[in-house]
Amino acid sequence: MAVKTRLDECLSIREGPSFVEECDANELARRFGTLIHVTSEDQLRRNARRYRSEFEQRWTDGTSSSRMSRPADVFVRDLVPQRLRGPR
Questions:
Q1: Domain range holding 67?
Q2: In whole angstroms, how far apart are CA 84 and each of 51, 81, 88?
Q3: Residues sharing a CB contact under 8 Å with residue 12, sequence separation 6 or more, in sequence order
Q4: Residue 32: which residues within 8 A CB-CB, separation 6 or more?
Q5: For the segment 22-78, what is each residue's pLDDT rounded down to a tens digit?
Q6: What is the pLDDT of residue 60?
Q7: How many separate domains does the chain show?
Q8: What is the pLDDT, as a whole number, of residue 82?
Q9: Residues 6, 29 within the same domain
Q10: pTM of the model
Q11: Same-domain status, 2 and 34
């Protein structure tokens, strides 16, 4: 079994190679060349949920409307793509 060192929620090192979630960074470089930019969809989703949570906790004095009642909702609606918002 490979020794796994977790660097954060999506990065790890397994007996030498770096991994982005379950993707070997060396294999990605071989397949797509370097320089390469790798984005974790799971990390984007976690970040979107964190941003929303922080806005909801700290920015509570929004105006009422039938569609959106808090500035956090406006932030999420306007800046976070639908597929990254996750369950409500």
A1: 41-85
A2: 12, 6, 11
A3: 4, 5, 6, 18, 19
A4: none
A5: 889 999 999 999 998 888 888 888 888 888 888 778 776 654 444 445 666 666 666
A6: 67
A7: 2
A8: 61
A9: yes
A10: 0.52
A11: yes
